[in-house]
Amino acid sequence: FPPELQNFAASLHFYSPKAYEYVRETFMKILPHQSTIRSWYTNVDGSP
């Protein structure tokens, strides 16, 4: 997925998983599955 789409998907999912699922279903699953986003969260380096 392009970085812009990854950022949008992760931000939307962070604020509202239900809204994310609605957008994903409405736009014919153009966004990645929620499990993919959760795997991205595990790869984020949150150190200052």
UniProtKB/TrEMBL annotation:
InterPro entries: THAP9-like_HTH
Source superkingdom: Eukaryota
Domain THAP9-like helix-turn-helix: 1-40
Pfam family, one: Tnp_P_element
Protein name (database record): THAP9-like helix-turn-helix domain-containing protein
Provenance organism: Solenopsis invicta
